[in-house]
Amino acid sequence: MADTATPNLIRRADYAPPAFLIDTVALEFDLVPERTVVRNTMRVRRNPDASRAAHLELMGEQLEFVSAAIDGKPFPNAHPHEHGLLLDQVPDSFELTLTSICNPAENTTLSGLYVSSGNFFTQCEAEGFRRITYFLDRPDVMASFTVTLRASKADYPVLLSNGNLLEQGELPDGRHFARWEDPFRKPSYLFALVAGKLVALEERVKTGSGKEKLLQVWVEPHDLDKTRHAMDSLIHSIRWDEQRFGLELDLDRFMIVAVSDFNMGAMENKGLNIFNTKYVLANPETATDTDFSNIEAVVGHEYFHNWTGNRVTCRDWFQLSLKEGLTVFRDQEFSADMAGGATDEAARATKRIEDVRVLRQMQFAEDAGPMAHPVRPESYVEINNFYTMTVYEKGSEVVRMYQTLFGRDGFRNGLDLYFKRHDGQAVTCDDFRHALADANGRDLAQFERWYSQAGTPRVSVRTRYDAAQQRYSVTLRQGYGDAVPAARETQKGPLLIPFAIGLIGKDGRDLPLQLDGEAKSSESTTRVLEFTQTEQTFTFVNVGQEPLPSLLRNFSAPVIVEYDYTGEQLAFLLAHDSDPFNRWEAGQRLATRELLALAARAATGAALQFDDSVVAAFARVLTDETLSPAFRELALMLPSEAYLAEQMAESNPAAVHAARQFVRKRLANALRDDWLKVYEQHRTPGAYETTPEAAGHRALKNLALSYLTELDDSADAVRLAAAQYETANNMTDRAAALSALLNAAAPQGGSPEAQHALDDFYRRFEKEPLVIDKWFALQATQRGGARHPVIDTVRKLMTHPAFNLKNPNRARSLIFSFCAANPAQFHAADGSGYAFWAEQVIALDALNPQVAARLARSLELWRRFTPALRDSMRAALEKVAAQVKSRDVREIVEKALA
Ligand code: TRP
Ligand code: ZN
Question: pLDDT for 653-664, tens place per residue?
Fold first, then answer.
């Protein structure tokens, strides 16, 4: 590979259709951990829609080539090389049989075929199939697959692949076989096989058209008691996709398999979804409320891919958001419907708030750094680096905007047309947009910019009330701050921004809305303005009093809104806005403003003080019994340290931590009695229930506990936490109590209560890897004290017998938790965090480049930090750049340093 600044840059503009097509694939596997033989027989023909190529170039990686035959005769012109197999002078249409060998036992990349806990699994997206056999491993080559698996029956009693089981039987020497056929053509990235000692929870359900389907959740035998929730989530997903989108399950059987070694969350292989155990296994003792809702969301996500991703797939990987943005949108809507149905806006809003919080904290940061890219990227070095917040979360916001513009029905019509046109095809983001436009009789040319423009747009708002004329004008201006170099480079002109707005009167009620030129006011008190120019004024008429604007209701577009609310106005919105999202937003703005002012003072060493009116505004939320507990918990949770640091001119994690701690202590001490009361009132006695209401009570109660441990005298709170730890009948309460104990003890570097609970937790859950992950993560994210840096604990835990760098969940639980979720400790002034980061990136690079590249990203915003930290971060990045080998990590560190 050439050692240039951007080795092997792949560009969207260079797309060309494949020279050959593959119609059918018959795979035969002789599964042996160190030496699996794969025989691959394909029907190949020239692509009539492509220019004529002299030879057939198949991709292949880490394969030992054995033989090639064409139409049954040995083929001498097959030339294996590091990246694949070149076949000279092939006929126009032929049967190609290739045999090769791979080594799943030694495959620590978890891409291709690998062994985990003695069982075989595959992961093919995006380019893992080429590590299994030679192939045209690109999503616009779709084939019909038949798969024969052969293995020792004692060691691998269960043999699974995509589609339907055709036959199974015995073979000599204690071996057996199974043959599977997938009735749908698919790209190679959706291929999967699983073999091993697994058991299944089974259920039979009837779908809308009356067909019976077999559903299975496959796990290791000791995990069978943790499969019920995943199965229920699957059944709910099947029902929801029928009701909301008219999409039915198209296979007779649908399988989910859990694996403990997995790079990402889960994978939507046709009919055989493979999941990280973290997103399948749950019971009240081992999983938190957050785990339960994540499982529901991820099961939904992968199931929904069956239509948005599998039936209609991507032409090339630049179109990744076509399936991911759309499927995230679908899973978000599914979760919102499960929580609140179509009409309980307050319950739906809690899901929306959680999603927007992630978007703003992670995606906005990504969009302001060296990895910034449009939802549909223009180029990449390693596609695995582009499974990003932008492609997934911003992509979902882009899909949501169609629904905001056209309404649920218009959106549904667009989706119907999309499937009518493209079922069975590999298509582009443009095809999707055209279907939405045509179904709604709209020209969406301008909307295309959401796909091609990087950076977070800023919308600044000016308002003017003319009392004499009773007119209220709202002037919107869109652009990008200076902080977005990526946006400057690609700027294409103004975006079509659906900007939802409401006007609030002095009594806190919404005013009727009538735009200039309209005959009467509309029924709804929220209006979606179509904001299409760089600057545009919208004038409301018959406005009898000066209103307070509620801007970007329900976060109707992924933008930053700039408007100079006073503190009083924000407190008023927090108390009255009819849009629950904006109520929460007002509190966040209020808190962010105060926290940033405090952080600026902390950075200069000045004394901190806090406005009592802000305390009062929060107190009102805390004690407002008309608000759901889940909403109150969200409203009272301060913006994260990472988000706050990102808002500073120069990120200063220590100052942000000091400011946030100061406010937490202030709120704790000022509202002591309220926190105690809330803690008592929101206990959930009796058997554990997973309902959103019960989870809301637990969330608010545990927030109260965490504030109580901030009290100047926290002895009572420590007793409460210790008691909660001992008596908890569920993991949400137990983990929250442990976390409270750890943080209460942070200043002294530990306490007997915290140590006792930590030891007990380990012993109690020694046999539950997902719970031990929590044990590592809680310690890595604990607060630490001035003389008790968390890095010491982390380094010690790296040598714990239960630590294992090869297992991504475990590596994430300790290393990522520290480097990406404990900013004040990670960014310690002595650079100890960065040195640790460099060591771990280098170590992971040799084992698992995908995971290493994710970790590498925790330093990408280095230029935005204070000068001393910046220098120290640059040194760490340079050290890593000099030593790593994988394309994955090199792309990240080279972009960061460029
Ligand atoms: N398509 C998967 C999803 O979003 C993502 C995924 C799972 C993945 N495993 C991966 C992407 C490995 C890249 C590499 O549902
Ligand atoms: Zn997905």
Answer: 999 999 999 999
485 falls in which pLDDT band (50, 70, 90)? low
pTM of the model: 0.98
pLDDT of residue 486: 59
What distance in angstroms lies between residue 548's CA and the mean position of ligand 2's atoms? 40
Any atom of ligand 1 within 6 Å of the Cβ of 146 = no
Nearest to 264 by CA among 275, 250, 248, 251: 275
- The residue type found at 113 is L
Ligand 1 within 6 A of CB of 125: yes
Which has the closest alpha carbon to 555: 297, 363, 301? 363
Can you tell me the distance from the alpha carbon of 496 to that of 484, in angstroms, rounded to the nearest whole number? 19
Q: What is the pLDDT of residue 413?
A: 98
b vs e for 164-177, b when ≥16 Cβ sit within 10 Å of the residue's Cβ? Answer: eeeeeeeeeeebbb
| DSSP for residue 312 | B
Distance CA 274, CA 355 (A): 24
pLDDT per position as a tens digit, 687-702: 999 999 999 999 999 9
Ligand with an atom nearest the CA of residue 327? 2
Is 878 catalytic? The answer is no
Q: CA–CA separation, 213 vs 192, rounded Å?
A: 20
Question: In testing the pocket of ligand 1, which one of 261, 264, 330 has its CB within 8 Å of the most ligand atoms?
Answer: 264
User: Best of 189, 267, 322, 386 to mutate for ligand 1, by most ligand atoms within 8 A of CB?
Assistant: 267
CB atoms near residue 251 (< 10 Å): 18
Is any ligand 1 atom within 6 A of the Cβ of residue 893?
no
105, 34 contact by CB (below 8 A): yes
